[in-house]
Design goal:
By secondary structure, the chain is α/β, with parallel strands linked by helices. It has helices at about 30-45, 105-110, 120-140, 155-160, 205-210, 215-225, 235-240, 240-245, 250-255, 290-300, 325-340, 350-365, 375-385, 400-405, 420-425, 445-455, 460-470, 480-495; strands at about 15-20, 50-55, 65-70, 75-80, 80-90, 100-105, 145-150, 175-180, 185-190, 215, 225-230, 260, 310-315, 340-345, 370, 390, 410-415, 435-440. It is built from 18 helices and 18 strands. A hairpin with a 2-residue loop joins strand 4 and strand 5 (about 80-90). It starts with 13 loop residues before the first strand and ends with a helix.
């Protein structure tokens, strides 16, 4: 595995970060949080960072002062047979001093959602990748680092080495591709080949894929980015194996020396129980009473049994198979008959799991509440009000909710995979060390053991408070984690 070393002195870097998502503007998962928080950290560290994101019609821009960039309005770019018109606007990202750039192209981005299954989905992200480079050209901005994220921007490294290689502006530019979830790869029919604009460089694409009738955007990035990163050290090891590599393991093994796992950080400006405007009562490890008040408020709001000894398990999750919900389905109904605990679940996704949690709520109306959808205020309240937080994922590149839970004194129950195992340590009651409950095997008995371990520990109040405070003392801030990115960037540029 590639190692990170610090290079001195630390001169300011010029960075162009390109992402399909950015909190709070456009978000489906952790990618948005990382792109936003890491960029803000880099800005606060004194680096010149330019962030580009599509201006989706779903973005609520009412509270933003959006300004057109004068020399980047009504520009034209040819993608295959399509002559596309686009503009670049700028604004300050809410809650930060970070200037961001918004790619406006109504024909592609006024769709009502971030991602679609439309036939021209590939055009939306070819445009993003090419405009990221051409925006730098228009600005005369020579980035030290192009930081690309997931398949949506994975063409940038190849474009820099081919279509735009003539431009001396990028002579010393290095590309970094971060894999947030290797399960999403951007696979399209090879019929789109003309749209890539790589006719003279088609030999650079994966020929076996083209022969089989497909083009894989992520694979292109894995082949041509100067450095590959992913969102936890464990996930960087896991994706080298077929079980987790999703068909990319051979390429990743070949690029093993260029692959680095860096655990995501948490924005404690947004996730801090002592100053969270979205929860009813502030609290901290020194003033822990507020947590119980949040729990009672949440349980009353949901119509749950508010008995003093009733443990509350929270879940905020996408309802997909990745999240270990088949195990929950096997374990929880039977356990509800055997043990006293309540559950608060927030999420949406696969209809099967939506129906399961709906059924569970109907069967135990005073012990289970299921909110189908997403509500940011409720997500914060569940973190603050729950005693435990359940994340039994089949795989989890990093995960953020377990780190939010630690901060909120909500004991995470997690499977040892990806970032979950990197950020949560099994609690040992005899030594008082550890921050949560961790199980290894992906099976129902292991999950049952973990939940029972937590429920058995919960009545031991001094021990439980120790466990809570251990978690609250952990530091997964970007001030801590972001330095690893900086060290990598400096090593790559040798500045």
């Amino acid at each position: 595995m590639g190692k990170i070393t610090t290079t001195m002195p630390h001169e300011p870097l010029k960075i162009c970060l390109v992402s399909s998502e950015l909190t709070p503007l456009a978000k489906t998962g952790g990618l948005a949080d990382v792109a936003s928080a890491l960029s803000d950290f880099l800005k606060r560290q004194g680096h010149d960072i330019r962030v580009l994101v599509p201006f989706y019609s779903s973005i609520d821009s009412s509270a933003m002062n959006i300004t057109p960039v004068q020399f980047m309005q009504n520009l034209s770019i040819k993608i295959g047979i399509h002559e596309l018109q686009y503009s670049i606007d700028t604004a300050t990202l809410p809650g930060t001093e970070l200037s961001i750039y918004l790619l406006r192209c109504p024909w592609l981005y006024d769709r009502g959602s971030i991602y679609t299954s439309d036939q021209d989905e590939h055009l939306r992200f070819i445009l993003l990748s090419r405009v990221a480079i051409e925006m730098c050209q228009h600005m005369g901005f020579s980035p030290d680092i192009f930081h690309c994220n997931d398949w949506h921007t994975s063409l940038v490294p190849l474009y820099l080495k081919t279509r735009y290689a003539w431009d001396g502006l990028f002579r010393n530019t290095r590309s970094v591709l971060t894999i947030h979830n290797i399960g999403y790869q951007g696979v399209f029919s090879s019929d789109i080949l003309p749209d890539l604009g790589l006719q003279q460089h088609a030999d650079k694409l994966h020929q076996d894929d083209i022969s089989s009738g497909m083009i894989n955007f992520l694979k292109t990035g894995l082949l041509y980015a100067d450095v590959l990163t992913t969102v936890s050290p464990s996930y960087a090891r896991e994706i080298l194996d077929p079980e987790y590599g999703m068909g990319m393991q051979d390429i990743l093994r070949a690029r093993h020396d260029s692959l680095v796992g860096i655990l995501n950080g948490v924005d404690y400006n947004d996730w801090n129980p002592d100053a969270d405007p979205l929860i009813p009562y502030a609290y901290s490890s020194r003033r822990i009473a507020g947590k119980k008040k949040n729990k009672l408020e949440l349980m009353k709001e949901f119509g749950l049994d508010c008995s003093d000894d009733m443990p509350l398990i929270g879940m905020v999750t996408r309802l997909t198979g990745q999240k270990g919900l088949d195990l929950v389905e096997q374990v929880v109904p039977e356990m509800m008959m055997q043990r006293r605990f309540a559950m608060a679940i927030l999420g949406s996704g696969e209809p099967h799991y939506e129906h399961f949690f709906g059924w569970l709520q109907q069967r135990y109306p005073d012990r289970v509440c299921f909110y189908c959808g997403f509500n940011n205020k409720l997500a914060h309240h569940i973190e603050a009000g729950s005693d435990m937080f359940l994340m039994p994922s089949r795989f989890e590149p990093c995960g953020l909710n377990q780190m939010y839970s630690l901060r909120y004194g909500t004991v995470p129950i997690v499977r040892r995979t990806g970032g979950l195992g990197d950020s949560v340590q099994q609690f040992d009651p005899s030594s008082g060390k550890g921050t949560g409950v961790v199980f290894n095997d992906y099976d129902a008995s292991a999950l049952g053991w973990a939940i029972n371990f937590a429920l058995d520990l919960y009545p031991e109040k001094p021990v439980w408070r120790k466990l809570m405070r251990n978690g609250m003392a952990m530091d997964y801030s970007w001030e801590h984690q972001g330095q690893s990115y900086l060290d990598l960037f400096y090593r790559l540029t040798e500045k």
